[in-house]
UniProtKB/TrEMBL annotation:
Pathway: Carbohydrate biosynthesis. Gene3D superfamilies: 3.40.190.80, Fructose-1,6-Bisphosphatase, subunit A, domain 1. Pfam families: FBPase, FBPase_C. Binds 2 magnesium ions per subunit. One of its GO terms (molecular function) is magnesium ion binding. Residues 186-319 form the Fructose-1-6-bisphosphatase class 1 C-terminal domain. The gene is fbp. Residues 13-182 form the Fructose-1-6-bisphosphatase class I N-terminal domain. It is found in: Cytoplasm. This is Fructose-1,6-bisphosphatase class 1.
Amino acid sequence: MQTLAQHLSSQGIQAPLAQLLTTLADTSKAISHAVRHGALAGVLGATEQENVQGETQKKLDVITNDMLKEALTADSTVRGLASEEEDHIVEVGQSGDFLVCFDPLDGSSNIDINSLVGTIFSVLPAPQGELSEQSFLQPGRQQVAAGYVLYGPSTMLALTTGQGVQLFTLNPETNEYLLTNEAMSISKDTAEFAINMSNQRFWEAPMQTYIADLLLGKIGPREKSFNMRWIAAMVGDVHRVLSRGGLFTYPTDNKNPEKPYKLRLMYEANPMSFLVEQAGGKASTGYETIMDIQPSEIHQRVAVILGSANEVDACLEYHGQDYSEEPSL
Ligand code: F6P
Ligand code: MN
């Protein structure tokens, strides 16, 4: 099995990007270690702080953010970073080639129940000149690499540099990432979907109708039975979609009219969309392709519908219809 270093060299990845990906991978090993020690290391539970999005920060959110920030600050290829846990962008160096956006510990509500969590990252080219928030506001299409690390029964790194998606498994004996799937591929069709059903009454008409039709199973217009899964960590749900197909969505809802979307574009939706597209799937808001969105702020949120191409298309058909005459469900 190839190591990550061997793989990056066999793909012809240039030295600066290979160095940055190695930094991210090495830091994820340390995060995996911290996550695995859990209560033994006193890292479970919440802090008294909130992040810029008004969410209470877990101890591990802060610890993992600091670990990534420290490692990326020491990496000469990094010009700046943006994190879910940082209010503002952080300027790192004067000359690095890359900007890194990351969610240090996705699914952090799972921490205290010893369930799946992960790290998500997106690498963008650093533009010339002064660094500002504007430098980060590039469509996902510009990403040069993206990936996630899943801290599950085994620690796995899924990575794309635009040449498909490769999956590495951390060997706990040698602490090395080994290539265990050289081309992750999402089946075009699926009979599995992932959505937080408790928000049903808050969805827009297209999603209401689409999910209602899935639930009708064989007697409904889709004429097949669907299964449902929800891990409550995007990283876990997307990993399942990359592993065995499926449709994952966190759609628009009007639960809180000031916050119609949940997932963040720059360090959740964009990197996951890059991976999904590279594995043959699709990623949309319902109305536009996620990676084509021109971002307007680093903590921007978007609706997300991603996964098996034919199923995403099926869902998008519902979004193209007119519901003005229909009674709401
Ligand atoms: O980062 C946001 C997030 O935790 C995702 O990882 C996950 O998909 C979603 O929120 C879970 O939302 P909910 O708590 O509504 O199930
Ligand atoms: Mn997250």
